[in-house]
Structures are given as C-alpha cells and as structure tokens.
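Exercise 3.2. Students should predict the tertiary structure of the chain below and write it as structure tokens, then compare their answer with the key that follows.

Predict this chain's 3D structure.
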Amino acid sequence: MQEIRFHGRGGQGTVVASILLAKAFFSAGCWVQSFPVFGVERRGAPVEAYLRLAKEKILIRSNVYTPDHVMVQDVKLLELVDVTAGLKPGGWILVNASVQPENLEVFSGFHLAWVDATGIAIQNRLGTRTHPIINTAMIGAFSRMMEMPPLEMISDAIKEDIAVKPEQNVRAAKDAYESVQFQGISNE
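Answer key:
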C-alpha cells in the first residue's frame, strides 16, 4: 500500500487533485481511498487531503500519518507546515515552485521534485492570475515523478470529472508532466 498526503490552500483544488489521482489509479487497477481534512474552510486556509492505493482491498480507515509521498501545492506552505512530518525515508516531495526550493536540508533523506504549476495554470487560463487552479498540473507532474498512473488515465479522469475547461486542464497536466524537475536526477 502507498499513502500520499496533499498540502494546499482552500481554492487551489487540493481535494479535487486527490480525487482525480484516485480515479486514475482506480482505472489502472488499484484499490483507492481519497479523503480530505479541513481546518478553517475558507479560500487560502491550509488544507490537507489523503490518498491510499494498493493492489488489494484497503481495510484501514484512519488518517494518513506516515505517507510514502507528499504533494505541496503552495511553496509558501513550506514555511508554515512541516510537510515532511511522518514522511517515510526516501519518499518523494513534489512542490509547486518555479525554481528549486531553498533550504534543501529540510528535504534531506527525501527525493525532491518541483514544477511551476502556477505558471502552467496561468498559461492555460485555469483560474485567474491571482488565484490559479493548479491541481491538474500537479497530478500531471506526479504521474511523471512516480511513473504511475499513466498520463492517459490522468487525462481520462480530468475529462470525466472536470466540466470547466477540460481540454485546458488536460493540457496543463501534460505540460507539467513534461516540465517537472528532479533534484539530482537528469531530466533529459
């Protein structure tokens, strides 16, 4: 079983990202669970969502305390939240950032990837310049980072669930898939 924790802010599509990724993994033959945890429910407030996936039925019914991987949809959350709390050694951290995040000692013992999901969302006119919707870009980058689920299944989940600008959302996922960067790993 693998567990993924999503960190974002209200209005960024964090919960939807976990649901879309769950649907793509389900299409790939996995059992899945996806669920959010809300604090203050308002735009901009920190939000967490979780995803479990396994090849067999998932019987556990609790929060995710020791995730295998973490997705951070707002680089500024790195200053407010310990996104590595409970993260298993060697796990991946995917950050929405236009450049490699600073303070790399925070990521010691983990794999780091980053993608300019904000720029990709703005380029694809998803949300507004001040409140871009980055979730589909982030799951596209996740697909490349983990080499699963297949990008086609990500695209299918987006087309099935996203009623507003589905083609732009698919394009954002593909753009992020192609542009995600990895610390210490050649992207070529």
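Discussion points: The chain has one domain: 2-182. Strands lie at 2-9, 31-38, 46-54, 69-72, 92-96, 111-115, 181-182.
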